[in-house]
Design brief:
This protein is an alpha/beta fold. It folds into 2 domains: 189 residues, NAD(P)-binding Rossmann-like Domain (Rossmann fold), CATH 3.40.50; 218 residues, Rossmann fold (3-Layer(aba) Sandwich), CATH 3.40.50.720. It contains 16 helices and 14 strands. α11 runs antiparallel to α12. The structure holds uridine-5'-diphosphate-xylopyranose. Uridine-5'-diphosphate-xylopyranose binds next to α9. The site of uridine-5'-diphosphate-xylopyranose has 21 residues, from α9.
Length: 431
Amino acid sequence: MTSTIAVVGTGYVGLTTGAYLAHLGHVVICADVVPDKVERLSRGEVPILEAGLEELVREGLDGGRLSFVLGAGAAVAGAEFVFLCVPTPQGDDGSADLSYVRQAAIEIGPDLEPECVVINKSTVPVGSTRIVEEALGRDDVFVVSNPEFLREGSAVHDCLHPDRIVIGSDDPAAAMRVAELFERLRAPLVITDPASAETIKYASNAFLATKVSFVNALANVCEAVGADVREVVLGMGHDPRIGFEFLKPGPGWGGSCFPKDTRAMVRIAEDAGYDFGLLKGVITVNEEQYERMADKVERLLGRSLAGCQVAAWGLTFKARTDDLRDSPAIAVIRRLQGRGARVRAYDPAVADDGGRPGLQLGGIDTATDPYAACEGADVLVVLTEWDEFRWLDFDKVAGLMAGTRIVDTRNLLDAAMLRRQGFAYAGVGRD
Ligand code: UDX
């Protein structure tokens, strides 16, 4: 069945949602408030690095099922469904800032069709469904929660092959109407109340962050006792209750969701009278991890970082994205700089336009290729797990560096080979 859908907000979630709903056969109008973005998207130019997204957007545009307009009001007129996909940044006190959600709801309220279903995809605290209902000011429409679990870098794949679809509503008929939109995906459905749906999103990200902090803490223990964390995870992961996913040690977790959602979850619990000490510990372990990576660099160097030249490979918060928000790579670089090091960084997704405004790169010198970053460096630090770093010419790297030391915070490189080539190598959670 084909439905008419409006999507408000064309960030990661909104744009991917709009594009894949059009791919599923629906007629989708996406709205944004930035004129230039709307113009570019209408020409099929996708402003973010996301595998397969540009193709999906072009498919929708060419098929006449996907369009972009300026302003939410223009998009929602005539729509049977409206997806709210606006940002919920972290407020000063750690809680989610709902002002964009509220503002969007106030704006679209008067233009909604009767019986329209407004679907909240933004990550919002428990009770937000009620807030949206109030802001809409309409008693002839429905509000449903439908959290999004897509990962950056595999957003299109995650949307087309979801592990589950969660729908939170007090109205079973409205929930079923939303479920029908995704019928072709044949994914497991969890239809529940709005508060549970909203909690599922936070709890999922908080749990995944807990797994990564656990393995990072475990890596520290492995280093202390002479074990190899990769072997330990292998031995643990065969137990299906544990699994292998999200147990790769690294420089700490980051990105647009984990840091914001873990803090928001702590805050939600606090507001409800519960001290979520476990999750606070998970956040602390993560912050300590950045510092530990700087310690590791200093240890391999055998002296203070003051006046040292560091080559950094990777700036994004993980590979296959150009997103620098809350990137552990940048957090570690800031700590290295804080100890007096000069850093020259290379990242395949940001090297070409490292000067883009607002990208938090202030004070970080960027190189246009990985070798140039290594010139005169006392130590090379691998911070993001870009595959291409594995296949570089390390003899050339050694020739360019002043010292032959590598700290591999992602356990990405072949330690044995590098040692044979004369490098001093330190990974994470292993000898
Ligand atoms: C996350 C959730 O996975 C997704 O379901 C949710 O909807 C949005 O937030 P994303 O922010 O794209 O997705 O990143 P993700 O792949 O989950 O990684 C988060 C961070 O954890 C990254 O910094 C990553 O490098 C780190 N990580 C992940 C590890 O250090 N080790 C792992 O084993 C897995």
